[in-house]
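Supplementary Methods. Inverse-folding protocol.

Structures were first reduced to a discrete structure-token string of length 370. This string, shown here, constituted the complete conditioning input.
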């Protein structure tokens, strides 16, 4: 069976993907970083145990290596790399900086461009010609596009064509891959993910990005000011493209199974959810009255509303989007049924997440106040 090598392996999407691969008896080699407290192997296994809610996990097909994304040959010995990349390999590059602001621009582009270049160079040096390189990008490399974002390459553009530097860096990274395809014959596939949320079937949510970061902020406010009415500069009719992690895993497994994976796949949700549904779900879970007001101006906000607006510097860039994505090539390889987020399922995810946050603070779960 094909061997799957994954970097950035202990991240949210990567670890869910690895969990599925192990259940399907694939051999998985995880490249992760150690820290001052835990080894790379400990961190990887902890991530898998966490997503399985403490249930036992069979690690017999898992091999973990401590690597450095920016160092030549990942700071691993040639003999080690020959073992890692030997044979029939699908390599997934998940490692990325998720920061977005101008202060972090150097780190963002360093990780998301230099890291990708080093990853491709190492891959080409140690793999056989039929091995495949999968680059995990974002559907929001589309930037401020008008019309449909197609499953093709788009040229680099200046920052005013994007919402933030993260999006721009991912567009640039895609074109790094494009150059390797054209000049080095890299066998590559770019996977553009939209906003990844929790498990659509169980509600289990282990990410705190995007709407979950927003919900965490609202929980803090609700605890301090219960019953408070808060206006939020949001268009209630605009939609969010939220893709459940179980659907993401199905898409990733489909790419592994595909004999000839297309060069670019827009891995997005087929249906979107409105901001009104998201706010309604939060209102049912928290003692707070969130009122969307797209025309709300800063000088009209009270002090609490201004704090919320500042805290939405990233999330706020995506609250008024209605992007159309082409999925022709994705549809050509996905044979298994996938699920889409509904108002009910996203509410379940929010409830799971907020209960977890409340438990960390007080040892108690939220009561449904809706």
């Amino acid at each position: 069976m094909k061997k799957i090598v994954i970097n950035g392996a202990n991240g949210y999407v990567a670890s869910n993907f690895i969990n599925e691969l192990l259940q399907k008896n694939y051999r998985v080699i995880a490249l992760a970083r150690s820290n001052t407290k835990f080894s790379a192997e400990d961190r990887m296994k902890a991530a898998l145990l966490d997503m399985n809610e403490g249930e036992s996990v069979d690690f017999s097909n898992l091999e973990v290596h401590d690597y450095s994304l920016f160092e030549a040959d990942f700071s691993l010995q040639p003999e080690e790399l020959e073992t890692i990349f030997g044979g029939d390999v699908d390599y997934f590059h998940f490692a990325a900086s998720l920061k977005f602001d101008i202060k972090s621009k150097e780190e963002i582009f360093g990780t998301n461009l230099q890291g990708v270049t080093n990853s491709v160079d190492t891959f080409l040096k140690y793999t056989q010609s039929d091995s495949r390189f999968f680059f995990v990008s974002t559907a929001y490399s589309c930037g401020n596009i008008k019309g449909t974002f197609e499953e093709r390459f788009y040229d680099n553009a200046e920052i005013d064509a994007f919402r933030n530097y993260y999006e721009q860096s991912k567009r640039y990274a895609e074109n790094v891959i494009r150059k390797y395809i054209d000049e080095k014959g890299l066998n590559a596939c770019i996977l553009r993910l939209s906003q990844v949320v929790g498990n659509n079937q169980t509600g289990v949510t282990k990410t705190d990005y995007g709407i979950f970061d927003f919900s965490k902020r609202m929980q803090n406010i609700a605890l301090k000011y219960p019953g408070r009415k808060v206006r939020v500069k949001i268009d209630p009719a605009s939609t969010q493209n939220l893709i459940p992690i179980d659907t993401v895993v199905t898409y990733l497994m489909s790419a592994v199974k595909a004999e000839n994976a297309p060069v670019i796949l827009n891995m997005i949700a087929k249906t979107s959810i409105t901001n009104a549904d998201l706010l309604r779900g939060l209102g049912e879970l928290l003692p707070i009255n969130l009122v969307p007001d797209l025309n709300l101006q800063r000088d009209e906000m009270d002090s609490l509303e201004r704090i919320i607006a500042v805290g939405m510097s990233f999330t706020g860039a995506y609250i008024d989007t209605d992007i159309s994505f082409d999925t022709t090539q994705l549809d050509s390889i996905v044979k298994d049924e996938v699920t889409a987020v509904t108002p009910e399922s996203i509410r379940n995810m929010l409830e799971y997440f907020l209960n977890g946050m409340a438990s960390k603070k007080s040892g108690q779960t939220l009561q449904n106040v809706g």
